[in-house]
Structures are given as C-alpha cells and as structure tokens.
Amino acid sequence: MPEQNLTAYDSCMSSSFVHSSSSVPATRGVSFEEARHTVERHAAGVCPGDAETVDLLAGLGRVLAEGIVADRDFPPFDRATRDGYAVRAADLAEVPARLEVVGEVKAGGWPEPGVCSVGLGQAVEIMTGAPLPAGADAVVMVEHTSVGQCSHPNVAKDATLGWGTLTGRFVDIQRGVSVGENFVPRGAEARAGHVLQDRGRRLDHAAIAIAAAVGKSRVQVFRKPRVAVLSTGDEVVDVAATPGPAQIRNSNSYSLAAQVQNAGGEPVRLAIAPDEPRRLRSRIEEAWDAEGLACDILLLTGGVSMGKYDLVEQVLGELKAEFHFTRVEIQPGRPTVFGSCSADAPARADGEVAVGARARAPASHRKYFFGLPGNPVSTMVTFELFARPMIEALAGMTPQPLIFLRARLKSEIRTKTGLTRFLPAVLSGEFENAVVELARWHGSGDIAALARANCYVVIPPECDLVGAGEWVPLLVR
Ligand code: AMP
Ligand code: MG
C-alpha cells in the first residue's frame, strides 16, 4: 500500500501541518515522546519471570525463553522450486533444444546418483520440493517445455526397464536457464546450528512454523507477568450488578484485561476500589503481596485527575512511590501516572513490609504501576502508548515500537494546540484509495465511537489545522 508507508513517528510529524505558536498550559506535564522514552528506559531494566515448557501451539503469543536453532541445513538438500526438468544450463545455451529424459524425481523421492542423475544432453523430470539430481545445475519450468517419444524400435523395450535407461522420452525446451535457477541450494536459508528465532521473540504463526520445522513439539517460554488491574471510583460497579441511576459498569477492568492479554501478560482483575484512601491502599497491597496475588505490575484506572476524590497519587505517595511522570501532554489521557515502589515496599497499612515482595516477582528491584485516567477511551489509549511496553518487557520481549502509518485525511481537522492528540478514526479504502476520517465522538468517555474506529489519527502538539487531502500519521488500533 504505497499510500500507507510505515514511518517513524518523528518523520510523520514533519509534514505540512499548519503550525501555531500554541498557548502553553500553566502546569505542563511531559511530552508524549518524553513519557514514552521514560517508560522504555525503565522497561529496559526489568527482567522476565522463570521459564516453563509448553506444547508448541500453547506457546502462541508467549515469549521464547530459548533460541530456536536449525537442527539441520535449510533446505536440507538442493530443493526444486518449480515443477519442470532438472537440466545442465550449458545444454540450453541454444534454444529450442531437445534433451533426453532419463528419470523422474518427485517430492519425497531421492535421486540416487548414477541411477537418476543428469548427464550431457539429459534432463530429469522434477517436481516442486524434490531434491535436485546430481549433475543438474538448474530447473526449467514445465511451462517452457513440451514432451515427446522417439519411435525407434528399441525404445519401447527400454521404456519398460524404467528410468535411467534409454527411455526414448525427450523434452523440447523453449527457454534457456541460468545456473542456479529454480532451486534453492542446500543450507541457503540456514545452516545447521544457526539461531532461527532469538530468545525474547514472541511466538506468532511464523515463529511457530519455524519451531515446527526444526522438530520442536514443545518450547520454553517465559512465565507471563501477572498484571493487577484495579478500577477505582465510587460510581463504578461490577458488570454483573444492576447499576443505580448514577452508577456505571466497570468496563475498564475488562478492556484492560483484554489489552494485557494481547500484550503477553496475565491479567488479575481486582475488586473495585472505592474513592476512600484506606480501602484503595489495601487493594494495592493485596496486588503486590507476594504471599497473595504476587502481581508483577499494577494498572489502576480512575482517580488520577485533579478532583477532590482522585486519591490514587496520594495513596501511592504514602506507599513511598517514586513518580516518573504524573501528567503527559496528550489528549485523551493527560493525567496518566507512571511510577514505581521499591520491591521491599510498599509498607503495609499496619506498618509491616509486604511479605517477600520479591519472592515470585521478576528480578527487578522495583514494582511498577500506571495510574491511567478513568475515561474508557483514555484508559485504552494510554495503555497502548505507555503500559504495553512495560508489560512486554516483563514478559521477556524487547518492547515493540509504535508503528505509524500514513493516509490521506478525508475532511479537515481543526484542533486545539499544545497536546499530541490521538483521535479515534476510521481508515477505509485500499491501496491508493485509502483515506482516514475522524470518528464522530463525544469525548473520552465515548466507548461506542472507539469501537467503531479502527485507528487513531495522530496530531502533533504544534498543529491546529490539517486540511482535507493531507497525509496524516495514524496508529492502528
Ligand atoms: P476519573 O478518572 O476517576 O475522574 O473518571 C473519569 C471518568 O471515567 C468518569 O466519568 C468515570 O465515571 C469514568 N470511569 C472511571 N472508572 C471507570 C471504569 N472502571 N469503567 C468505566 N468508566 C469509568
Ligand atoms: Mg474517579
């Protein structure tokens, strides 16, 4: 899709947007890039959990704790890549040429040298996936040939004796070939002992194919990090409950659990914490207690804005948290909090240190947490931007870079400046017709609009107008 190049974020941002000298808010947080780099720096210092061995298909989505090594050369023999005739290229210096057909080798068959090999003026019929016979140095595609039978009286008798004798069969070849054409030489893809997949690679269908190809029916993967998901808010009720007139169901807990699974973690959904400091604190302790849930990282939602009952920062502060950032200049998701506590902390409400906080945790000395804004769209966006790389690192993989595509904007966007915006949008059309249009939405609480969208248009902070037809960076959802 030429219109949707993969691009780095920075080059996306240097397009022909209309820039303005934006009004800078009084209390600024960190920029999107700075927040992302901060997370990446911390992610680089965490260690995954122990390894375990699972059946190959159960490894889908898991992270390899071992390298996958070629058990033999790939391909293990000179492998034909076309149906046709194995030949000596020099015999086809002039075409059309007639060669004697002295044998056949099909996939799974082995052309014994001397019995089924190619001599001067000879060819062996060959099928895709079959080993190249001795003496041949190329394969001519069957499409460029036509076969015939000599009418010499000896021929009928010889034909009954099988290949490798004078069969009387010949092939007329219309096109020449170069040496090496239409077969892959033994070991060209990989030599025996070569690492085909590195430790730390997430097993997708291609990686599973490689493991299967080298004969691994079981693979070693890292234990999934346990990710505590804690929703906060007096108004939030469980999905099974019938909400009161001013209550809403806890959708964040489910969207986050799904995102955690996608990122390679094991979500541990905790009971909703009310906007009350002691109970919020005991939920956090519950998540980190090594004798209890022993989670490796904590995701909170809600309670991180400036409201009177937004208590998450206060409570984490009491637990001696260090805050790496508490606000990011993005929209949605500005009040995002990222921090960590020493693995020996948090101190319990009763003054004890959480028991054996490191016993089952990864070998990092810190317990990380994210306080994500409660608005559902903000929660989902900030998870992808900031929490995902940390979970990927805890799962044993190198955090994946954000991949920005580009498409033409259908209708102009006017936007307030100063924030990097991630606006839910619908990418449609294919190839040169791909266009993107903002989803109609009612702000960060509008889950329905987000569900209709399939990407976010990314608007840099200094831009206040993007015209219809301009190229815009977008992040696929
Ligand atoms: P807060 O970040 O706590 O100020 O919440 C911002 C908005 O998100 C409010 O309208 C909340 O009711 C809503 N909200 C908070 N937590 C959740 C949740 N777990 N599920 C769905 N919506 C939520
Ligand atoms: Mg709240």
Protein described:
The protein has about 475 residues and is α+β, with helices and mostly antiparallel strands. It is built from nine helices and 29 strands. The strands form eight sheets. A six-stranded mixed β-sheet has the order 8-5-7-6-10-9, with no helix packed on it. A hairpin with a 6-residue loop joins strand 25 and strand 26. Helix 2 packs parallel to helix 8, helix 5 packs parallel to helix 8 (about 375-395) and helix 6 crosses helix 7. Bound molecules: adenosine monophosphate and magnesium ion (MG). Adenosine monophosphate (AMP) binds near residues 231, 236, 248, 375 and 445. Adenosine monophosphate (AMP) binds near residues 235, 253 and 305.
Walk me through the topology.
Elements: H1 9-12, E1 18-19, H2 32-43, E2 51-55, E3 68-69, E4 79-80, E5 84-87, E6 97-105, E7 122-126, E8 138-141, E9 145-149, H3 153-159, E10 169-173, E11 183-184, E12 195-197, H4 205-213, E13 218-222, E14 226-231, E15 236-237, E16 248-249, H5 251-262, E17 266-269, H6 277-288, E18 297-301, H7 312-318, E19 322-325, E20 330-331, E21 337-342, E22 366-372, H8 376-394, E23 404-409, E24 413-414, E25 420-428, E26 435-438, H9 447-452, E27 455-459, E28 463-466, E29 471-476
Parallel strand pairs: 6-7, 14-17, 14-18, 15-16, 18-22, 20-25, 23-26
Antiparallel strand pairs: 1-28, 2-13, 3-12, 4-11, 5-7, 5-8, 6-10, 9-10, 19-21, 21-22, 23-29, 24-28, 25-26, 25-27, 27-29
Helix pairs in contact: 2-8, 5-8, 6-7
The structure holds adenosine monophosphate and magnesium ion.
Magnesium ion (MG) is lined by residues 232-233, 302-303, 374.
